[in-house]
Design a protein that fits this description.
By secondary structure, the chain is an alpha/beta fold. The protein folds into three domains: 55 residues, no CATH class; 48 residues, no CATH class; 238 residues, no CATH class. It is built from 15 helices and ten strands. β1 and β2 form a beta hairpin. The longest helix has 22 residues. The chain is globular. The relative contact order is 0.11. About 8% of the residues have low confidence.
Length: 423
């Protein structure tokens, strides 16, 4: 017997009593469409009424995806809408407070693979890894907190290590070919300095540990970068306390002083012998990692006075994120570098800037993102110096996350530097 086949019209147009009738948009579909519309339009609506999103995590906000990315335009909309939701920070804090006070457990701000709790389990190795599989915070031993990007950026890099090394070498050549001195400092991740404070088992443990070992085995030797791990451990031994905050991803002011000292010794060996460093003020600092768990916590910060000639304090505290270049000048004194320095630095340099100001007569610092945003302008900025120094965070270098690692950025900056040679 012949099958009657499918009706000649769409099933939504069939009579309701027909067994194949199916509405084009059921109630659940309509609710889902309305929710999706509200989710994706909320950032724009809030912007029109004056609300402006602020970063909650230690990274820039996701950019609006380009239509040239094909299907990636649609997959990228979710990250953009999430980052730009109004009152996102307050929502994260509320979820964290409810989770801890009511249920007595950390808030699963982002789930790790298979819904594992923060700091536990490993992603399924079979499908391609996605950084969203990793939690934003790894809760370690003794109350220590680690930024999840220490792990996820290594396990899901944007650029391979060979490409990263080539990019850093390209920058060295661009600077040195113009007659300038180039110095590269890589600020170690807290998880690199304190692996014993990490939990016994956490998402991405295997891949991040392997990548960390390869990174430090290859990068300093291949790029000439200053390896700060040993000097930081020695500074910690002298000070008798951790050189990184237990609930913040950055080093303390002791780490900033050590960075300034290592740079000074590269520029003028022996110049730090006359330095005198003494404790000055203590102030509260808003820790960055607890905010990702919906918490507000402060840590006490011990600042220092640094006299390069052993006399009066010469530090200057000028808060800056370096997106607008920070310029610091001082009269020459013994123990100081007198050559103009132009530095590229991120949040770790914020803890070093008072001591860089104390030990350099002319230093200015800009953010790494500025190089890629406007290479020509960045080239003119770097051309002001006889020394060009880069301070870069390990997680961003290891994960190939700096846009300035693109070949064309270094080439454009190098062209400007070549037009203004030194020597």
């Amino acid at each position: 017997m012949r099958s009657p086949g499918l009706p000649p019209v769409h099933e939504a147009w069939l009579p309701r009593e027909h067994p194949l009738h199916r509405p084009r948009h059921g109630r659940r579909q309509l609710v889902a469409l309305v929710c999706a519309l509200v989710f994706f339009s909320a950032p724009l609506s809030s912007w029109l009424f004056g609300a402006r999103p602020e970063p909650v995590e230690n990274r820039p906000l996701a950019e609006f995806p380009s239509v040239t990315e094909g299907f990636g335009f649609f997959t990228g909309l979710g990250a953009w809408a999430t980052d730009h939701l109004p009152f996102r920070e307050q929502a994260v804090r509320a979820v964290g407070a409810i989770s801890r006070e009511v249920f007595g457990e950390p808030a699963p701000v982002h789930g790790s693979a298979h819904g594992s709790p923060i700091g536990a389990g490993r992603p399924d190795p079979d499908p391609p890894l996605d950084e969203n599989l990793f939690p934003p915070v790894v809760e370690g031993r003794g109350g220590w907190l680690f930024l999840g990007h220490d792990v996820s950026y290594r396990c899901v890099p944007k650029r391979g290590l060979d490409e990263v090394i080539a990019g850093l070498r390209r920058w060295r050549s661009a600077v040195e070919d113009s007659g300038r001195e180039f110095q590269l400092i890589i600020a170690p991740d807290k998880s690199t300095m304190y692996p014993d404070r990490l939990p016994a088992d956490y998402a991405g443990e295997e891949c991040s540990t392997a990548e960390r070992a390869e990174f430090w085995n290859r990068v300093p030797r291949a790029t000439g970068a200053i390896d700060m791990r040993g000097p930081l451990r020695e500074a910690e031994r002298r000070g008798g306390r951790p050189i990184y905050h237990d609930v913040d991803t950055h080093w303390t002011h002791e780490g900033g002083i050590e960075m300034a000292r290592l740079l000074a010794e590269r520029l003028r060996p022996g110049s730090t012998a006359s330095w005198r460093v003494t404790p000055s003020r203590t102030y509260p600092h808003s820790a960055d990692i607890p905010e990702l768990l919906g918490q507000q916590r402060t840590v006490p910060i011990q600042a220092y006075a640094l006299a390069p000639d052993g006399g009066a304090d010469n530090t200057r505290f000028r808060p800056s994120d370096f997106h607008e270049p920070l310029r610091l000048r001082s009269d020459a004194r013994p123990g100081m570098n007198t050559r103009p320095v132009r530095m590229v630095g991120d949040s770790f340099s914020q803890f070093a800037s008072p001591y860089l100001a104390a030990t350099n007569t002319d230093i200015a610092i800009t953010h790494p993102d500025n190089l890629a945003l406007d290479p020509r302008s960045a080239g003119r900025f770097l051309a002001e110096g006889e020394v060009v120094a880069f301070e870069l965070s390990e997680r961003f270098v290891a994960g190939g996350r700096y846009p300035m690692l693109d070949a064309e950025v270094a080439e454009q900056v190098g062209e400007v530097l070549a037009q203004h040679p030194v020597g």
